[in-house]
Specification:
- This protein has about 300 residues and is of the alpha/beta class.
- It has two domains: about 5-85, Arc Repressor Mutant, subunit A (Orthogonal Bundle); about 90-300, D-Maltodextrin-Binding Protein, domain 2.
- The protein has eleven helices and eleven strands.
- The protein has helices at about 5-15, 20-25, 30-45, 60-85, 100-105, 105-115, 130-135, 200-210, 225-230, 240-245, 280-295, and strands spanning about 50, 55, 90-95, 120-125, 145, 155-170, 190-195, 215-220, 240, 255, 265-270.
- The strands form three sheets. Strands 3, 4, 5, 6, 9, 10 and 11 form a seven-stranded mixed β-sheet that branches. A two-stranded antiparallel sheet has the order 1-2. The chain has a two-stranded parallel sheet with strand order 7-8.
- A hairpin with a 2-residue loop joins strand 1 (about 50) and strand 2 (about 55).
- Helix 6 (about 105-115) crosses helix 11 (about 280-295).
- The longest helix has 28 residues, at about 60-85.
- The chain is elongated and about 85 Å long.
- The relative contact order is 0.13.
């Protein structure tokens, strides 16, 4: 089967009619019918039975479609890559980040970089971790910024630095103890849990359970950003990553160090060094410098 045969057969099988397939392919109905008939002629068997104006897939068509669907998916992927390459420019950086980095850190890093590189054009989007890695594999983005979960086939995580977990409390619930706080310092205080949907909050939950400290949950937040917002309104205290702690509104919120320290990797993700443009490599180094400054600005309070 030729590629055009595959495309038309996939459309007709999926849509159930020549009319709808023609609309999807943006061609005329006679054109679809002609290509379909030519495919059947080359194959030597019918793909559809025509009955009362309807197309009914033959047993052969059902078996063939399983393979055709895989080929069609690969062709779609090829088209996405082709579009990406067409727009590729040494002065363009396509980057995606998880939410925590998109609030303050990454926009500030982009702005400071562009001051020294006036001709740079940024394409930025916020994605979930799974979407971000998929975008990298599809070459829709050059760089992904995230908490590094490690060991991703085909993706390199270039270490930018280490973040820490910190305690967030409102002015009214800030423990009187001076200096860093331990988990047992939070016992008895209303505590805002995370819902364990991400790897970072799952690792935090595991650490809390291993400590044996019994905390007093008053609610569950779907993200560190939501937990921080609840803290700002006096609902309780929470433990969050320090990027979130440093990003966005912080009125009425006190940031305290957590002891013993619990850290995690922050990485710039990309496919490989060979296919990474020089401007992207330079921007990754800029991110590393800016991250050190950004996290260094967090000082324990109280």
């Amino acid at each position: 089967m030729r590629l055009r045969h595959i495309e038309v057969f996939h459309a007709v099988y999926s849509c159930g009619s020549v009319t709808r397939a023609a609309e999807v392919l943006k061609v005329s109905q006679p054109s679809v019918s002609k290509v379909l008939a030519h495919a059947e002629q080359q194959l030597g068997y019918a793909l559809f039975d025509r009955a009362r104006g309807k197309l009914i897939p033959t047993p052969e068509a059902h078996q063939l479609f399983v393979e055709v669907a895989q080929v069609n998916d690969r062709v779609d992927h090829l088209r996405q890559v082709a579009v990406s390459l067409r727009s590729l420019d040494k002065g363009t950086i396509k980057i995606a980040a998880t939410t925590a980095f998109s609030i303050d850190f990454l926009p500030a890093a982009m702005a400071s970089y562009q001051k020294a590189h006036k001709d740079i054009f940024f394409n930025l989007e916020t994605l979930k971790y799974e979407e971000l890695t998929e975008a990298l594999m599809d070459q829709r983005i050059d760089i992904g910024l995230a908490y590094d979960q490690g060991n991703l086939p085909g993706i390199i995580g270039e270490l930018l630095g280490y973040g820490r977990f910190v305690v967030l409390a409102s002015d009214s619930m800030n423990p009187d103890k001076q200096g860093p706080l331990r988990l047992d310092d939070l016992a008895g205080l209303p505590f805002i849990k995370l819902d364990n949907q991400g790897s970072l909050d799952r690792s935090l939950t595991t650490r809390i359970k291993a400590s044996g400290v019994e905390l007093t949950p008053v609610g569950i937040a779907g993200s560190f950003q939501l937990a921080k917002a609840l803290v700002s309104h006096g609902l309780g205290v929470c433990i969050a990553d320090e990027v979130t702690a440093r990003s966005g509104p912080a009125d009425g919120i006190v940031i305290r160090e957590l002891e013993p320290e619990f850290s995690f990797r922050i990485s710039a993700l990309h496919i490989d060094r060979e296919s990474t443009s020089q401007i992207s490599k330079e921007f990754i180094q800029h991110l590393k410098t800016r991250l050190a400054d950004f996290l260094g600005n967090i000082k324990p309070t109280g």
